[in-house]
Design a protein that fits this description.
With 286 residues, this protein is an alpha+beta fold. It is 10% helix and 22% strand.
Length: 286
């Protein structure tokens, strides 16, 4: 069953869950649970968000770590004001609502149609709870703005992923397994991606899911390889300009070394590919 973006679309709410009607087909976004944990709120698009409290956390490669790129050094303490971040990666179901409401382009691979999961402006229902892919930085930024949010800064993303105890992975220091995340596999179409929130054992200290594996995630910052050497100690937002944006997390294809929560990757902001998605963030009221 597929959902087409047509003029004759209706929406309603049943038992607090968004229901979208398209050509007689009802679709309930399976990734739209009500906030259930302490400090959780629902965003404009219904996405649950978790609160990350203000304070200091260690950013960059942990002391004594056996690997890490030059751009992940030095380890440095950063203070962040409180903020909210999406509990899950943005799903196709939520992105479909964005495209439907705004006329924004659908997420398509620019060169290889076998890497696209949507067919023109049609989204298979089976994709609803899986993270959206083939969105470039500007697509991600546009979605977050439409949803009343913004992309997280690189520092916000990392703190939400690893907490304040210098851990190597979102779940701690135990080496990753397929119980923790979706990784180390080949492209198999939609079966490559797992529904968001599938890995209870892999969630972060704050309760964010899929901050390793499933898809890479855009953050707000421009990329600079030596930014950590000059970063402000409070609420850093990255360089003022640049040619590349930063990707965090790790995708379904990566192996263990890149799963680390401190991994930084630069990417052309116009790059759309089948392993990159995003999540949104928002300021917390002071």
């Amino acid at each position: 069953m597929q959902l087409s973006i047509l003029p004759a679309l209706l929406s309603t709410v049943l038992f607090g869950i968004p229901i979208f009607l398209a050509t007689g087909v009802a679709y309930a976004d399976p990734a739209a649970p009500s906030p259930s944990g302490p400090g959780e709120v629902a965003a404009k698009d219904g996405a649950p968000m978790i609160r990350v409290s203000e304070g200091v956390f260690p950013m960059g490669v942990p002391k004594g770590d056996r690997d890490g790129g030059r751009d992940e050094y030095p380890r440095h303490d950063i203070f962040l004001d409180a903020y909210y971040i999406d509990k899950y990666e943005v799903t196709n179901g939520r992105y479909w609502e964005f495209v439907r409401a705004t006329g924004h382009r659908s997420p398509q691979h620019p060169k290889d149609p076998t890497r696209s999961l949507w067919k023109d402006n049609t989204m298979p229902e089976s994709l609803g709870d899986r993270p959206v892919i083939n969105a470039d930085w500007y697509d991600a930024d546009a979605y977050c703005r439409w949803a009343g949010r913004r992309l997280p800064t690189e520092a916000e993303w990392e703190k939400a992923a690893r907490g304040t105890d210098d851990r190597r992975f979102p779940w701690g220091n135990v080496e990753p397994t397929h119980k923790h995340l979706n990784f180390n596999q080949r492209w198999m179409g939609e079966k490559t991606l797992m529904p968001v929130g599938s890995y209870e054992a892999g969630k972060s200290p704050y309760g964010a899911y899929d901050m390793a594996g499933n898809v890479w995630e855009w953050v707000a910052d421009w990329y600079a390889p030596l930014y950590y050497e000059m970063s402000p100690a409070k609420n850093p937002k990255g360089p003022e300009s640049g040619t590349h944006k930063v990707l965090r997390s790790s995708g379904w294809e990566v192996e263990t070394p890149l799963v680390r929560s401190v991994t930084r990757v630069k990417s052309d902001p116009l790059n759309r590919n089948h392993s990159t998605g995003f999540r949104c963030a928002a300021d917390a009221a002071k």
